[in-house]
Amino acid sequence: MAKIKTKWVCQNCGYETPKYIGKCPDCGSWGTLIEETDIKPSLPQSVVIDESGVCLINEIEITESIRIPSGFEEFDRVLGGGLVQGSLILLAGDPGIGKSTLILQTAGNICSNNKKLLYVCAEESGSQVKLRAKRLNVNSDNLYVYSQTNLEAVINQTETLKPDILVIDSVQSMYTSNITSSSGSVSQIRECTNMLMSIAKNKNITVIIIGHVTKDGNIAGPKVLEHMVDTVIYFEGDRYKSQRLLRSIKNRFGSTNEIGVFNMEESGLVEVTNPSELFMKERTENATPGSVIIATNEGTRALLVEVQALVGATSYPSPRRVATGIEFNRLLQIIAVLEKRIGINLSKHDVYVNVIGGIEIDEPAADLGIALAIATCYRDVVVDGDCVIIGEVSLSGEIRNVNNLEKRIYEAQKLGFKKAIVPKFNKKQNDKFDIEIIQVPRLTDAIIKCVSKK
Ligand SMILES: Nc1ncnc2c1ncn2[C@@H]1O[C@H](COP(=O)(O)OP(=O)(O)OP(=O)(O)O)[C@@H](O)[C@H]1O
Ligand SMILES: [Mg+2]
Ligand SMILES: [Zn+2]
Fold first, then answer.
1. Confidence band, pLDDT 50/70/90 cuts, at residue 46
2. pLDDT of amino acid 309
3. What is the DSSP string of 228-278?
4. Maximal CA-CA distance, the chain
5. Ligand 1 atom closest to residue 242's alpha carbon, by position in its atom list
6. Helix 126-135 vs helix 99-111: angle between axes, to the nearest 10 degrees?
7. Which ligand minimizes its atom distance to the CA of 102?
8. Range with the poorest average pLDDT among 124-128, 242-246, 315-319
9. What is the rounded average pLDDT of the residues 385-412?
10. Is the model more confident about 3 or about 190?
11. Ligand 1 pocket: which of 90, 91, 94, 97 to mutate (most atoms within 8 A of CB)
12. Nearest residue by C-alpha to atom 29 in ligand 1
């Protein structure tokens, strides 16, 4: 009998090697390589081959993609306007965050619109899904549930049932008989995803696959699938809080900077149409040193969020810098500007900066807010509680303009703020708003204009 060829595959990143090694040279994790049978997987189906051959770009006719509304405005926004027919969507998230809940509610919405949906629950029994559906008040004559882990069986069912949408919950529990590796291994989930991609493209079925994010590398993470699918969406949130964020990481049919906000309640996920209000909810009435409200821009809307800083004498040989929700290097840069341009010496102080509500801010418009949070905490003064801070800080200590400024100010006005600190070089916009607009050319001006003794 011919010897079965095997290979070692990193379960974290998908790196392959013919021999065992302890540390993955690609992602650096230890002990993540497991032995898998080396069988040529089927060709990737993510590329749609156009039979017509070479043609001029000007002569290609555009076929409008059809979108199916998810029934959630927040979800549709993240998808770029609904689920594109015939696309493959990966929904990834930590265990227990609410992936099945989101998809089951979406399924209910879609089915009530006369679409047929097949929900494959590879991890739960039909009655478990029914129990959840009952709690979420989901019922429909178009919603089919199939408790199955074998992908070939699922494909057969898809052929008889001909659903508009196919949901796989989760891809890590599925296996195909094409290859012998155990379910959950990189080879299995890659091959399953390939097969699902070909169903999506050839049968024009929208396929949603759910994937668990794992940190320990025992089960292959959705990371290895990201390049294969059309859209990657992460479902995030603090498990001890009810707030959930939907964020797209990759989207072949829309932009990736939109977020969707939900609240997890007994009856399921409820859309939060005004997230700023939610993020402001936990704020205390009185202004505290180190706390400021900034206006950030997420896709098509502005969001008000609270940034907190804590500055204290260090007991470490080199002071600590901890950034949660903002980029670490951005924090270092702002600290450097504060030291050089304002004369705040932080070389013997630990600095912690935290964005409340689990939001990740990656735009420079938050700079001024972060700088003021640190400065006010250091000097034990406060930024007025009715004031919103907007602006990028340059290395020279000047405040730079930001995009979508008006939208940010409107959001602050809507939520009852009385003042907005904004960059200097904006056109006179004061008349347009009911709130006081304070333009500041430099970081020093900002500190004078909005800071008061507590
Ligand atoms: N009776 C309930 N009332 C309120 N919330 C509940 C209730 N039951 C479950 N939940 C919420 O739903 C979450 C689990 O949701 P769900 O099963 O959709 O998550 P998941 O991401 O699919 O998890 P898994 O990784 O197990 O597949 C729980 O963490 C909890 O927040
Ligand atoms: Mg689940
Ligand atoms: Zn690796």
1. very low
2. 96
3. TSSEEEEEEE-TTSSEEEEEEEEETTS-S--EEEEEEETTEEEE-S-HHHH
4. 85
5. 31
6. 80
7. 1
8. 242-246
9. 92
10. 190
11. 97
12. 96
Q: Is residue 267's pLDDT more than 70?
A: yes
Q: Which residues pair with 324 in a beta bridge?
A: 354
The two three-digit tokens of residue 291, written as one number: 């706390």
Domain 278-453 of CATH type 3.30.230.10: yes
Amino acid occupying residue 435 = I
Q: How far apart are CA 65 and CA 81, in angstroms?
A: 11
At 228, which amino acid appears?
A: M
Tokens (6 digits) for 54: 């070479």
Q: What's the token pair of residue 421?
A: 């600190």
- Name the residue with tokens 């949603």: 208
Q: How many CB atoms neighbour CB 404 within 10 A?
A: 18
Of 223, 220, 212, the C-alpha closest to 36 is 220
Q: Which of ligand 1's atoms lies nearest the C-alpha of 103?
A: 18
223: tokens are 């990371």
Burial class (CB in 10 A: 0-12, 13-18, 19+), 202: exposed
Task: Specify the CATH superfamily of domain 66-273.
Answer: P-loop containing nucleotide triphosphate hydrolases (3.40.50.300)
418: pLDDT strictly greater than 60: yes
DSSP 351-410: EEEEETTS--B-SGGGHHHHHHHHHHHHHTEEE-TTEEE--EE-TTSBEEP-TTHHHHHH
